[in-house]
Specification:
The protein is built from one helix and 38 strands. The protein is mainly beta and 633 residues long. It has three domains: 221 residues, Jelly Rolls; 134 residues, Immunoglobulin-like (Sandwich); 122 residues, Immunoglobulin-like (Sandwich). Keywords: Signal.
């Protein structure tokens, strides 16, 4: 569905200015004078030093943390100091919060001694809004998470919990946190499209934008509640953190009906005991964006063939103003030798939406270059039209409402070690089917450096998302581990509908051996999606109608999955998924059955299923004879 809310000229102008990253005239607010567009403002200047719990306009909630007023400051003489440990919370809540039209802009300055770097995937929130009227959704415009495979620093992100879209966070490698330096954080909650926009140190971060139909949660509409509560402070959800204690200073909190801005650099001095600023952080200039960490390099191998020069990772063309921003996030797994089979799934967003025939210029013809391959061939593809491969370029057309394009490909020039390709990266080119230009970009760690496409040019102002085109969030799906004190909510174990150990061998029966490869996963909430491919051998040969007793009916149990369904299958007869069992018949000379599946009972984190699925095999020959089934790693 596409939405075209009615926006006032002032709202449209503000949205366009934000989208174009142009300087805008912002209100100077050195003092917290209420009135006009200001709904709430606190600079902590008039409060006595020491422990604080409430004033006439706000309260502190979160008894597990200590809040004090001290002399560490950003723009005045005092700030709110929150001292917290892991799995604790302290938020400042305005006593009344009812933003007009259920939309609001916010601004706060923060100084964090050190953001969490342990445990892995440590998750925290600095701003959370909620409402008694609605579906229970908690809206978190400012938060973050430590993603060890992406950065040595925690990453800023937008997210939600508690509602139909589930628990999700849209973090980005391009938005690292900065330790021991003042940072200006701004956000917008735009009710007509349930859009969250974020600025860091005065710079718009469209890659953090999420909206009603573009988010990382279960794919149902993300809808704001009727806001009546908003908290700003710090909450960390796991114990055993590094550091063991977090020291956060918050200053100049403002909520308004229009954007307030940072209004200059921080003037305060850091606390004497604070550690030195992280190398990745901008020193103290609040208007300077923190340095972006280097992309995670693909692993290399001495045995890997050098990348061919057939299609080098060339510098991208300049961004075309007004052209739709196509962002493709690939995930990859592989198996086999000579040739190697490579399973690639891509998540495609166009101006923050899925490809659509009736939006953003329509559908497109794309060329995905496999840098590191020379002889790409297509074995199987899904959710794409006109698919072909030449040299190291995969060409295809997007399809209406199909954001997950993928396939299984073969190549003799790709090296596969432990299920991972060695040195394979991607770059993107293309145009609209109408002939119009696009701004193509590869997101994620598999982007070819120097060939990931231009920084997306903002599209023409559109009311569908407040004029700001978000970058995709689907490659950043991370579930938050349950708080230490929370009751465990993990799903019940999958029913033991099939044995998990192979039965005793039957003398003389053919030996069926299955090697199961699970590709990267996607999806959120209670349901995940994944690609599963099976390599079958029968007495060391591929299945055949005229050998080893003929073809067979097999039952592959997916231990750890529940409610298994198959949206697409290949190289199998009479395929059926039920419970946690994939049943199928082997086909003549087809050793690689597989499919795209959905299931509950597990979670998908950074493209990996947790806990990992395991497998067991049972079955019989179609003639009724016995087999000796087994699964190998």
């Amino acid at each position: 569905m596409r939405f075209s809310p009615s926006l006032s000229p002032r709202a449209v102008a503000g949205a366009v200015a934000a989208a174009l990253l142009l300087p805008i005239t912002l209100r100077a607010d050195a003092a917290c004078a209420m009135g006009g567009s200001i709904l709430f403002c606190e600079d902590f200047e008039a409060l006595p030093p020491g422990i604080t719990t409430s004033t006439a306009t706000w309260t502190i909630q979160g008894a597990s943390s200590m809040a004090t007023i001290d002399s560490v400051h950003a723009r005045g003489t005092q700030a709110l100091h929150i001292a917290a440990t892991g799995a604790s919370k302290a938020f400042i809540y305005p006593t009344t919060f009812a933003p007009p039209m259920n939309s609001v802009f916010g601004r706060m300055w923060i100084f964090m001694d050190a953001f969490p770097t342990a445990p892995n995937f440590a998750h925290f929130t600095l701003v959370e809004a909620s409402g008694a009227v609605g579906d229970g959704t908690l809206v978190r415009p400012i938060g973050g998470q430590f993603i060890p495979s992406v950065s040595t620093h925690a990453l800023w992100g937008t997210g939600s919990d508690g509602g139909p879209t589930g628990d999700w966070l849209n973090w980005r490698a391009t938005t690292p946190t900065a330790d021991a330096t003042w940072t200006c954080l701004e956000f917008q909650l735009d009710n007509p499209t349930s859009t969250i926009n974020v600025w860091i140190d005065g710079v718009a971060k469209p890659e953090l934008t999420v909206s009603k139909n573009f988010h990382n949660g279960t794919q149902v509409p993300f809808v704001f509640p009727t806001f009546d509560k908003i908290g700003m402070g710090f909450q960390e959800y796991q114990g055993g953190t590094t550091p063991a204690q977090f020291n956060l200073w918050v200053d100049d909190i403002t909520l308004a009906t229009t954007r307030v801005g940072c209004n200059g650099a921080a003037a305060g001095t850091p606390p004497a005991a604070s550690p030195a600023a992280s190398p990745a952080a901008a020193p103290t200039a609040a208007a300077t964006k923190p340095a972006t960490p280097s992309p995670v390099a693909a692993p290399t191998s001495a045995a890997a063939a050098p990348a061919p020069a057939a299609t080098p990772a060339a510098a991208p063309p300049p961004a075309a103003a007004g052209a739709p921003n196509y962002v493709v996030t690939p995930t990859v797994s592989c198996w086999g030798t000579g040739p190697v089979s490579v399973l690639v799934n891509t998540q495609i967003s166009v101006n923050g939406m899925q490809p659509a025939a009736d939006a953003n210029g329509g559908l497109a013809s794309l060329q995905l270059t496999f840098n590191g391959a020379t002889d790409l061939a297509v074995s199987q593809s899904w959710n794409a039209a006109a698919v072909s491969a030449t040299s190291n370029v995969l060409s295809f057309q997007t399809q209406d409402d199909q954001p997950n394009v993928g396939g299984i490909f073969t190549s003799n020039s790709i090296t596969c070690t432990g299920g991972k390709t060695q040195g394979l990266t991607f770059s993107l080119a293309g145009q609209l089917l109408s002939g119009g230009a696009i701004n193509p970009t590869i997101a994620g760690p598999l982007a070819a450096q120097g060939a990931t496409g231009p920084a997306p040019a903002p599209p023409a102002a559109s009311p569908t998302a407040g004029g700001t085109a978000p970058a995709p969030a689907t490659s950043s799906i991370v579930y938050c581990p349950a708080p230490a004190a929370a009751t465990a909510t993990s799903p019940t174990a999958a029913p033991a509908s099939a044995p998990t150990t192979a039965p005793a061998n039957t003398a003389g029966a053919p030996n069926y051996v299955a090697k199961v490869t699970v590709g990267s996963c996607w999806g959120t909430g209670n349901t995940i999606n994944f690609v599963m491919n099976v390599q079958l051998s029968v007495n060391g040969e591929q299945p055949a109608a005229d050998a080893n007793g003929g073809l067979a009916a097999l039952q592959l149990t997916v231990n750890g999955a529940q409610s298994l369904t198959a949206s697409s299958t290949w190289n199998s007869g009479s395929p059926k998924a039920s419970g946690n069992v994939f049943s199928f018949q082997t086909l003549d000379d087809q050793p690689n059955p597989g499919g795209i599946f959905s299931a509950t009972g597990a979670t998908c984190t950074n493209g990996q299923i947790s806990p990992p699925l395991t497998f067991s095999l049972a079955g019989a020959l179609l003639s009724g004879g016995a087999i000796n089934p087994s699964v190998t790693a």
